Amino acid sequence: MPVLRSPFRALAVSATAVGLALSLTACGVSSASMQPGVAASVNGTDISVSDVDQTAISLCKVSVAVGSTTTALSGAYLRDIVVDALVRVQVVYDVAEENGLDADAMLEKELDAAQTQIDALDYDGDVTDGVVTLVAANNFFTDVLYKVAGTDTTDERVYLAQWQASHELDINPLYDDVDLAGTLTVREKRNDTSVAVSDTATEFLDSLRAEVSGSGDGSVASSLPNNQRCV
Questions:
Q1: Considering the entire predicted model, what is its pTM?
Q2: pLDDT digit string (tens) for 144-164?
């Protein structure tokens, strides 16, 4: 995947699911197969922990500034969003190339459109390339899948499941697993805590995820230290 303003372009994230005026320094233990500083690897293309952190930080700043984030979110959750996004866009970039599509042109088109949307926001600060990627990538992801698997959701899921089964996709255990086909009903959250998850911790994480989904009041995420949450 070429460098187009930044090495990675990714999944669009709703403005209600962003925000992060905090320092998001990754911590924990990488898997044995992952090089230090690597958040994920797609067919040998690495996504760095630094890229994930900086994108999450910028994402939070923009969201808070434009008033789109009213509920506190954990930094871990936001990093999961970013990793999922960057992985998915790298995957569909590879899918496009494997199927003879002009991945560069398709991606650049969506990046330009995303930049236009961001420029229209009431925000005077700098926006990182990673945030542009997040805004652009949902359309990029959809466009590629339509062309290679059709518009039927089931067909798309089957295609993605088969692709994932036949290609290398490694995620640092700091982050949530990425299920391309969306077939898993329970996604293991491993990076919200750095110790074994007790029943009490599980209840805490369940409450935190409820807030993220819009069914909470933000009090759980708000209880986290400043350097572990957004807002």
A1: 0.69
A2: 999 999 999 899 999 999 999
CA distances from 60 to 83, 175, 177, 190, 195 (A): 15, 18, 22, 21, 26
190-214 pLDDT per residue, tens: 444 333 334 444 444 455 455 445 5
Q: Calculate the alpha carbon distances from 19 to 93, 104, 139 in Å.
A: 27, 29, 21
List phi, psi (to 5°) of 46: -90, 145
pLDDT band at 180 (very low <50, low <70, confident <90, very high): confident
* Distance between CA atoms of residues 94 and 203, nearest Å: 39
What count of other Cβ atoms lies within 10 Å of the Cβ of residue 23? 11
Contact predicate 71/217, CB 8 Å:
yes
Q: What are all long-range contacts of 30-39, with beta carbons under 8 Å and residues at least 24 apart?
A: 30/172, 30/173, 30/174, 31/170, 31/172, 31/173, 33/170, 34/170, 34/172, 38/172, 39/83, 39/86, 39/171, 39/172, 39/174, 39/175
Question: What mean pLDDT value characterizes the chain?
Answer: 72
**How far is Cα 71 from Cα 64, in angstroms, rounded to an integer?**
10
Cα–Cα dist 47/174, whole Å: 13
